[in-house]
Amino acid sequence: MTPKSANVGVVIVSHSPLVAQGAADMVRQMVGDCVPLAWSGGNAEGGLGTHAAGILAAIEEAWSDAGVAVFVDLGGAETNSEMAIEMLGEPRSGRVIICDAPLVEGAVMAAAEASGGAALARVVATAEELSP
Amino acid sequence: MPSNAALIGGLIDVCREAIAANADHLSELDRAIGDGDHGTNMRRGCEAVYAERSRLAGLPLPKAVEEIGLTLVMSVGGAAGPLYGTLLIEIGRQMAGLSEQAEFPRAFERAIGAVARRGRAQAGDKTLLDVLYPVHAEVVRRAGLAGIAEEAERAASLTFGMKAMRGRASFLGDRSIGHIDPGAKSCALLTAAICRFLEEQCLA
């Protein structure tokens, strides 16, 4: 196992490709390469929206045996993320959690926690502390 | 009744046609209370299913329905992809376990339940569930195909007076009242197209 995959992965899902990529860039700059990270933004045609196939690909890309924390913006992003997680199939689907946290702040906090080798539950809890 | 392949192929065709003919109208409804892309998204999904038509037509019906659902999930996007996808995937899986056709209403009910859980929505929230539940009720009471189609259209029009509780439209609060829900409308269009097709096949 490479050192990279030992840490919890982070996936960012937004209706906007620019928002998703921008948030991912921000995470990358703050925590470096030690956290598996991927994003999915926009619909299948590259317009605004979300789609399960893209999210599934992002989860695969950021996959870590330690688990993956997913950050979403609006409703459809959450529904499509749930669908993508189910499509991963057991047992991997059980190791992916959609965080109830703000997209940008949540992803940064989660990645910072993950970079220290924290377990998935700890990473998710840290991000969710940001929610009122 | 038509052969299995003709049935599957025919259903794919009539659903694609119904969405293509109404895609602009669906997007217009969605512009009022959502993202404005419901028609475009549904058309993309139907085209993706159509592209797989010959392969799907070669499958047993339950498997074909499940795979159509998976194709919709991967191609429609938005919230409609997972919702319609969940509906068809579950109908297909439930149908696979049926020992006789009379058990279909129960399979349909379970699939609708899966959609409600997926969207965390219930009756009256101004979603496609507000068409699915009445359609199910008609199926249970063994209404004719024409009656089911009519009820679907009526149910969709009733979402006009509802306040959206889920999805993008819910952000509008009271301002969502006075618009037909685009998901309910597409659901009614598809139901009507399917009923018309089945009626023609039974009469043929």
From TrEMBL, chain A:
Protein EC: 2.7.1.121
Catalytic reaction equation(s): dihydroxyacetone + phosphoenolpyruvate = dihydroxyacetone phosphate + pyruvate
Domain PTS EIIA type-4: 7-132
PROSITE patterns: PTS_EIIA_TYPE_4
Record-linked Gene3D superfamilies: Phosphotransferase system, mannose-type IIA component (3.40.50.510)
Pfam families: EIIA-man
Domain of life: Bacteria
Annotated GO MF terms: phosphoenolpyruvate-glycerone phosphotransferase activity
Keywords: Kinase, Plasmid, Transferase
InterPro entries (UniProt xref): DhaM, DhaM_N, PTS_EIIA_man-typ, PTS_EIIA_man-typ_sf
Role this protein plays: Component of the dihydroxyacetone kinase complex, which is responsible for the phosphoenolpyruvate (PEP)-dependent phosphorylation of dihydroxyacetone. DhaM serves as the phosphoryl donor. Is phosphorylated by phosphoenolpyruvate in an EI- and HPr-dependent reaction, and a phosphorelay system on histidine residues finally leads to phosphoryl transfer to DhaL and dihydroxyacetone.
Assembly and binders: Homodimer. The dihydroxyacetone kinase complex is composed of a homodimer of DhaM, a homodimer of DhaK and the subunit DhaL.
Protein known as: phosphoenolpyruvate--glycerone phosphotransferase
